[in-house]
Amino acid sequence: MKECTKCHEVKPLGEYYYTQKQGTYESACRKCRKDSSLIARKKRMTALEIKTFERNRALKNKYGIDSKDYQVMHDAQEGCCAICSIHEEHTRLNRLVVDHCHYTLRIRALLCNNCNTAIGLLKDNPKAAHSAGAYLTKHGC
After folding, report:
1. What residues does each domain of the chain span?
2. pLDDT value at position 100?
3. Tell me, what's the pLDDT at 77?
4. Is it the case that residue 126 has pLDDT exceeding 80?
């Protein structure tokens, strides 16, 4: 057991990197070392590189896809929302978001933020979406 010099938690030695050259374990645990190396990496990046890095990390962590997978979907949809067909440059976020089923976690398509929010508010229920459409047709604007 050893106390990390960064987070001050006492952890087993397996949580620390071993330095063969010095014959000792590092003073900071693996998690803290990883976090500090990420911070240092971000300091060397431009704002756009940080934004791209965070977006790619979110795609991987949330949906299990990388930027190339996203780009394939984007190109197939010609940069337009799969529901309302608005081009991404006319959306609030200036990009399309990944829509997925919250029950199966299966990716469906890329949507504008408004359509994605609407589906979420309807709790992914096709009957509710159909009823909303019928309501709008009946009552108009």
Report:
1. 1-44, 53-141
2. 92
3. 97
4. yes
Least Cα distance to 100 among 70, 128, 130 occurs for 70
Instruction: Give the residue from 66, 63, 87, 77 showing the smallest Cα distance to 109.
Output: 77
Q: Which of 28, 23, 7 is nearest to 15 (CA)?
A: 28
The string of pLDDT tens digits covering residues 34-67 is 887 777 777 777 878 888 888 899 999 999 999 9
Start-to-end C-alpha separation, the chain: 68
Lookup: tokens for 98: 């990944």
Topology at the third CATH level for domain 53-141: His-Me finger endonuclease fold (3.40.1800)
pLDDT given for residue 85 in this prediction: 96
CB 79 within 8 A of CB 96: yes
CB 19 within 8 A of CB 25: yes
Judge whether 67 and 95 are in contact, CB under 8 Å: no
Q: How far apart are CA 98 and CA 118, in angstroms?
A: 14
Which two three-digit tokens encode residue 63? 């949906």
| Bridge partner residues of 3 (DSSP) | 10
> How many CB atoms are closer than 10 A to CB 112?
25
Residue 116: Cβ within 10 Å count: 22
